[in-house]
Amino acid sequence: MEDQQVESNMSLPSWPPQTTPEHTEHLTHQLLAYCLAHSLLLLPPGANPASAIHAPVSLFPTPFPRQLYAHALELGPAFNELYAKITLDVKWLDGVMEKVAGVDEFQGELWKLWREVRDDAVQPLHLLLSRSDYLLHTASAAPLSLRQVEYNTMSSSFGALSTQTHGLHAHLLRDPSYAALHPQLRPENLPENETLRGLVDGLAAGHAAYEESRNENEERERVVLFVVQDAERNVFDQRLLEYDLLRRHNIRTIRLTHTELSTRASLSPSRALILTHPTSPHTPPVEVSIVYFRSGYTPEDYPTPSLWRTRSLLERSSAIKCPTLALQLAGAKKVQQVLAAPGVVERFLGPGSKSEAVRSVFAGLWPLDDSPEGREAQALARDPAQAVKYVLKPQREGGGNNIYREAIPPFFEKLSKDQREAYILMELIEPPAPLANALVKGGEGVARTGEVVSELGVYGTALFGVEKGIVRNEVAGHLLRTKGRESDEGGVAVGFSVIDELLLVDV
């Protein structure tokens, strides 16, 4: 496994293809019809379940170097292995979280709960549905390469909608008037996108592992539990996973919020997680094989102590968690920063080409504590001339939490010493020369062209435990999110970017 680079003097093609306003409108109408017919949708603001809007998507796939896409896929199993081994190294993870707990209350509560329940756990397996996010990076006289933005161990969304977006662009390519707009617009330049299938197969593998471990005489139906947020707008991305689980694997799913679980979930004497039906008392209870969290990663998901107790109940059950508390904590930004220190990746993956390849995609990362590296980072954060090269990242998941460039010094000065230690300083990744595309915002139905930056996410699935080791480790697919260059955040659900597809090019 080697670091992949391409020469920076080779440019990506001029983009998007030139067309007339009338033709753009014609293609946009085709796009909208496809989205509405293929569940490429979000609920509108307010999450009214009786209506839907098309998801934010691109009119054209975005050019991306073929070699670097292949390299990102090659790195997938290595990153899954790295984070699986971090999750299983209790002493090391405790050492990292101890530093975080004093400055980030939410992470501290997660760590406290993990310490309370881990010796009482009865399920030895962890299920990971991951996404490793990358940007193209270039610097003066340096080759074009990949830089990792973050590695997500929880609620890695938009996989199903990514598959649908691939279908959208493949459909548009069947229109000769679309394909004729640029010689690169050819079906063979769209990479295969079976992310929906890959993620569902990961859930099904976890379900199968659970079935093997249970008493065959127990006749309760085993289901996959989706733990979701109230007023979830990204419901169709989740529903497509549910429907495919049922269609291809005959595994039924149940969707519940933390609040609903507090009244419907209980543990059997053998610690099976049992769910009752809310409106039909004559329907037999079901047993949960997999707890798949699509919520639980922000403080807002635990507004009352009772919901923390619900998370504890889930963690102590025999169901396989996706993720466990330990695996969720392994995805903290502080872990990402500590991994950048010399010798840490090698602790888990050993010396050699695998560790070198993982390190090759790291951006510069620094703590903001009293260590020599931390004091250096604090000086950079205070200096307006230097801060424009960096981003401040908290431990928190979800869009809208990062502080960028010139906004760093005034924000940093308002933080107390303890609050500063809740952040890491990360070198800004520098995308190549401006690329443009036509973006259609959710519910607008109008294509708007502007300069963009695209972020590649590579999904993976892994099933692992202390005794069995890593029993499954697969690449599950990809996602391309494209945002206006003026926008620093990239969360589709909060309106900053669109779901896109790769157009692989040789550069």
Provide a compact summary of the structure.
This protein is α+β, with helices and mostly antiparallel strands and 507 residues long. The protein contains 18 helices and 21 strands.
Describe this entry's structure for a reader:
- By secondary structure, the protein is α+β, with helices and mostly antiparallel strands.
- The protein contains 18 helices and 21 strands.
- The chain has helices at 21-37, 66-88, 90-101, 105-117, 159-173, 176-179, 195-213, 235-249, 258-264, 305-316, 325-330, 333-339, 344-349, 353-359, 372-382, 384-387, 408-414, 417-420, and strands at residues 41-42, 53-54, 57-58, 62-65, 125-137, 145-152, 222-228, 253-257, 265-267, 273-275, 286-293, 320-322, 365-367, 390-394, 403-404, 423-427, 435-440, 447-465, 469-484, 497-500, 502-505.
- The strands form five sheets. Strands 3, 5, 6, 17, 18, 19 and 20 form a seven-stranded antiparallel sheet that branches.
- α1 crosses α5, α3 (90-101) packs antiparallel against α4 and α5 packs antiparallel against α7 (195-213).
- The longest helix is centred in the N-terminal third of the chain and has 23 residues, at 66-88.
- 45% of the residues are buried.
Topology:
Layout: H1 21-37, E1 41-42, E2 53-54, E3 57-58, E4 62-65, H2 66-88, H3 90-101, H4 105-117, E5 125-137, E6 145-152, H5 159-173, H6 176-179, H7 195-213, E7 222-228, H8 235-249, E8 253-257, H9 258-264, E9 265-267, E10 273-275, E11 286-293, H10 305-316, E12 320-322, H11 325-330, H12 333-339, H13 344-349, H14 353-359, E13 365-367, H15 372-382, H16 384-387, E14 390-394, E15 403-404, H17 408-414, H18 417-420, E16 423-427, E17 435-440, E18 447-465, E19 469-484, E20 497-500, E21 502-505
Parallel strand pairs: 4-21, 7-8, 7-11, 11-12
Antiparallel strand pairs: 1-2, 3-17, 5-6, 5-18, 9-10, 10-11, 13-16, 14-15, 14-16, 17-18, 18-19, 19-20
